[in-house]
Design goal:
Length: 132
């Protein structure tokens, strides 16, 4: 029981965000943001990818004149690569190969695809598909 109390105190500030989470109350105090944007601790270049997977936050940001991420709302197609809806041209990154080992594969495109599926977000995507 004491351990539960300790974990409750320690994890009090940790926010668990999920896609099914209801958006925060849109009736805020004037001058206050509709969401605690400071809780998003990511490099600026990762924000579009975060907003792609957290549409509820993107929706609040669109309505909030104090949202610091408005410029990223135009890039909601950007994704990490493991999402089912992620198109290759919007992936976070894609490997670039300059040499093909003929015993392994026969084209650069095939080598890049194999690498992506075995060692990048493609690997995460395949593991997620196994779980569903």
């Amino acid at each position: 029981m004491l351990m539960l109390f300790v974990f409750g105190v320690l994890l009090h500030e940790v926010s668990l965000s999920g896609q099914n989470e209801a958006p925060p109350n849109t009736h805020s105090i004037p001058g206050e943001p509709l969401y605690n944007y400071a809780s998003i601790r990511l490099p600026e270049e990762h924000i579009p990818f975060f907003l792609h997977n957290n549409r509820h936050i993107a929706t609040v940001c669109k309505k909030d004149c104090l949202c610091p991420y408005k410029k990223h709302l135009e890039k909601l197609k950007y994704c990490w690569g493991y999402e089912k809806s992620c198109k290759p041209e919007f992936r976070f990154g894609y490997p670039v190969c300059s040499y093909v080992d003929m015993g392994w594969t026969d084209t650069l495109e095939s080598a890049e695809d194999i690498f992506w599926k075995q060692a990048d977000f493609g690997y995460a995507r395949e593991r997620l598909e196994e779980m569903h």
